[in-house]
Write a structure and sequence with these properties.
- The protein has 1 helix and 24 strands.
- 4% of the residues lie in helices and 48% in strands.
- It has one helix at residues 8-23, and strands at 48-57, 62-71, 74-82, 93-99, 106-111, 116-126, 129-138, 154-161, 168-172, 180-186, 191-197, 213-219, 225-232, 239-243, 249-253, 262-266, 273-277, 283-290, 293-300, 308-315, 318-324, 332-338, 343-350, 363-371.
- By secondary structure, the protein is mostly beta strands.
Length: 372
């Protein structure tokens, strides 16, 4: 995204607030072997710096799973909020906030689905319309017990807006029953959505593990979806797609039990996939193209007792650490908006801070990034 509509005065306000934030006391496929991408020599990568980080939402609930975008000149942030915590509860809701400048945020929409846990909301900008797509897990009237976790209880929902003010839905997404839907992308003609599911919608499997496949779903309108391609036959999990102006798709796929993530590439019509293992697992992955470089974000659990939200440059086929954000415990799921060639905003959630009684909180944060 470019910096159109990002007014100079607004940027000054953000930088001034960012400087104050720094000083504030709280700142702290197809079947087959994995393909080997052509090796490239290491490049001179930019230096990534965190100019500031600000806590922008905490309401005493568990706030998590962010995404960030720009639409019609404004910034939009979405995330899940639940009074009962991280796991699967019918009391959860999805919040959508809007901002003119990245400093002052207002809630513009909130929704839930009866007898379903809503989680992992993501934006989709498609055909001049802004969608928020969320996975939902059937719970009935109370918290879903761990031994009843079954991907077949999943169903995608969406809300959408033409102006960011009036919102429609939530509406069930046709073709997503039994799919845990996640990030979406578009080539302008079709929208593509990651959905993981039990093979053949098998009813005896519980939870998630090796016996999960990842499917690319396609849609002409953002509301009715169909299977387009199978890109992970085993260990399917959260996958982020990025489609460039030439139609080339690059993705990062999380894998079960924190196994190394995979780098994915595919050309239109996205029926054949190349895959390569990265150095480590990436939880809640994000991949974006920022200028001439790929930036990958997500949770790094290389040290299991100290999980952190991390950003890496993708240098050919390897991850090169760029920055670790103030984070800990339950954290990650970043969203990204480019402001210009050297400035960007990144949303994420974390539970590294405490309230006045010394209890950990799970809140939403916004970091101002610069690259040199």
């Amino acid at each position: 995204m470019r910096k159109a509509n990002w007014q100079l005065s607004e940027r000054r306000r953000f930088l001034q607030a960012s400087a104050l934030a720094i000083a504030s006391p709280w700142t702290g496929l197809a079947r087959g072997d994995v393909s080997q991408f052509s090796k490239t020599e290491p490049r001179n990568l930019p230096t990534l710096r965190m100019r500031s980080v600000r806590r922008i939402h905490h309401n005493g609930e568990h706030n998590a799973f962010t995404d960030l975008c720009r639409f019609r000149g404004k910034l939009y942030l979405t995330f899940r909020s639940c009074p009962d915590g991280h796991m699967v509860h019918p009391t959860s809701s999805i919040l959508i906030l809007s901002s003119e400048d990245g400093i002052q945020w207002e809630e513009v929409h909130r929704f839930s689905v009866p007898q379903r846990d809503v989680r992992d909301p993501h934006f989709l900008l498609f055909k001049d319309r802004l969608f928020v797509i969320t996975g939902t897990w059937y719970t009935g009237n109370s918290t879903l017990p761990l031994d009843q976790y079954d991907l077949n209880k999943h169903l995608g929902y969406a809300v959408w807006s033409d102006d960011g003010v009036v919102w429609n839905g939530p509406q069930m997404l046709e073709g997503t029953f039994g799919h845990y839907v996640w990030r979406a992308a578009s080539d302008g003609k079709l929208a593509y959505l990651c959905g993981r599911r039990n093979p053949r919608f098998e009813i005896t499997a519980r939870g998630e593990g090796d016996n999960v496949e990842s499917v690319m779903l396609a849609s002409e309108d953002g509301l009715v979806w169909r299977k387009h391609a199978l890109f992970q036959e085993t260990e399917g999990d959260e996958t982020a797609f990025w489609i460039d102006s030439q139609g080339t798709l690059t993705g990062v796929a999380r894998r079960a039990r924190n196994r190394p993530a995979q780098l994915l590439r595919s050309q239109p019509p996205y029926l054949q996939w190349e895959r390569m293992e990265l150095e480590r697992g990436v939880g809640g992955p994000m991949i974006v193209r920022w200028g001439d470089h790929w930036l990958v974000g997500g949770r790094d659990t290389s040290q299991p007792s100290q999980p952190v939200t991390a950003l890496d440059w993708l240098d050919g086929d390897r991850l090169v650490r760029a920055l670790e954000l103030p984070s800990g415990g339950d954290n990650s799921y970043p969203g990204f908006v480019e402001l210009d060639a050297t400035n960007a905003l990144l949303s994420y959630y974390s539970s590294h801070e405490e309230d006045g009684q010394g209890r950990p909180i799970t809140a939403i944060y916004l970091a101002h990034l610069t690259k040199e």
